[in-house]
Amino acid sequence: AQKVTQAQTEISVVEKEDVTLDCVYETRDTTYYLFWYKQPPSGELVFLIRRNSFDEQNEISGRYSWNFQKSTSSFNFTITASQVVDSAVYFCALNRDSSYKLIFGSGTRLLVRP
Amino acid sequence: DAGVIQSPRHEVTEMGQEVTLRCKPISGHNSLFWYRQTMMRGLELLIYFNNNVPIDDSGMPEDRFSAKMPNASFSTLKIQPSEPRDSAVYFCASRGGTTYNEQFFGPGTRLTVL
Question: What phi and psi, each to the nearest 5 degrees, are found at residue A62?
Fold first, then answer.
């Protein structure tokens, strides 16, 4: 069975703080893909990143960074120097190789206060 | 390039009325998905098309829901008759081309059934 757990329901930080959103996944597959999506207050779902199971190299994109650790089945997302515009619900998702189904976590609501 | 286009963005209707939601996927994508998002159930996959053919409709709630994809650039999700419990945000997403497994979502249609 596949599952994605985002244990943090809601996080509140003050602008310029660093914040890490946790994502833990379960799968028996050896090849799979992990994703992060952002859903701002306007409602759309924005694709942020895809990671393949065979590539554990961490990735940095501006203030965003992702830490993929197969040993702990985690794919955590860190925002450095958070900004009010980062306020959104963030979803982690899992996809098996050769499958179309995205398994979403329940999301983490991030509130960045000025 | 244009992203996934959905219309209408908002729909308010009365119970018993027919509702039609529309989606134009990203050009060149061969997979199309319809999702429903509610507070109680999160993101649910309703139906998946590949090359215009419905592959998995196991998420369609009941016979009141139907979806079509007459060509590669257009899909509809119809609810007839609508009920208040159908109130939700409906997303269309597409995948394919040179992207890997990531799905790109449209802005969603917020449906309210009174």
Answer: 65, -120
- Give the whole-angstrom CA distance, residue A93 versus residue A103: 5
Provide residues of A within 8 Å CB-CB of chain B: 33, 35, 37, 42-47, 50, 52, 91, 95, 100-102, 104, 106-107
| Minimum Cα–Cα distance from A40: chain B residue | B107
- The pLDDT tens digits of the residues spanning A52-79 come to 898 888 888 899 999 999 999 999 999 9
Tokens in use for A110?
A: 């991030």
Interface of B with A in 61-80 (CB under 8 A): none
End-to-end Cα, chain A, rounded Å: 41
The CA distances from residue A68 to A50, A60, A81, B54, B59, in Å, are 11, 12, 21, 34, 30
